[in-house]
Amino acid sequence: MGPGTWSRPSAMAMDAYREGDEYMAAFDLPGVSAEAIDIDVERNMLTVKAERRPVAKTDDVQMELSERPLGVFSRQIVLADTLDTERIKADYDAGVLTLTLRIPIAERAKPRKISVGGESSPKEISG
Predict the structure, then answer these.
(1) What is the per-residue pLDDT across 21-43, written as a single tens digit (0 to 9) for each?
(2) DSSP-assigned beta bridge partners for residue 51
(3) Residue-wise DSSP of 58-116
(4) Using an 8 Å Cβ cutoff, are 45 and 39 in contact?
(5) Whole-angstrom distance, CA of residue 30 vs CA of residue 42
(6) What pLDDT band is residue 91 in, cutting at 50, 70 and 90?
(7) What is the Cα–Cα distance from 110 to 21, expressed in whole angstroms?
(8) How far apart are CA 116 and CA 85, in angstroms?
């Protein structure tokens, strides 16, 4: 299988989990510069695309082994309508080589207590 292209990208590895009131999605993008990452949200579809380009080599370099995949990588996630897509935050830490998206849960989706009101009878305090 050859390198991914913009019309036929390769899949990227990811983890998804919940941390408190936020959902997290971490994408492994080793060797990708932050400028080569494209994140889009349209309605409830999150799309992450990235491109890993070959390292520029001079004429006197002879490749002995090349196992790191090059090309375009992509992943799409359908987001629940209870997630607040207006507040997605993207962090990229090249040392860890992971892109993390924080997706806060919308206030309307959080569990809440409903208080029950009732008639209270007047009380007389004697003393």
Answers:
(1) 788 888 988 888 889 999 999 98
(2) 72
(3) -TT---S---S--EEEEEEEEPPTTB-GGG-EEEEETTTTEEEEEEEBPGGGS----PP
(4) no
(5) 26
(6) confident
(7) 8
(8) 33
For the chain, the C-alpha Rg in angstroms (whole number) is 24
Higher pLDDT, 84 or 100: 84
What token pair was written down for 90? 């993207």
Q: How far apart are CA 43 and CA 50, in angstroms?
A: 21
Question: What six digits make up the tokens of 32?
Answer: 């990708």
Give the end-to-end CA distance of the chain in Å, rounded to a whole number: 89
State yes or no: pLDDT of 1 exceeds 60: no
Q: How distant, in Å, are the alpha carbons of 16, 27, 28, 71, 126 from that of 96?
A: 16, 11, 9, 20, 70
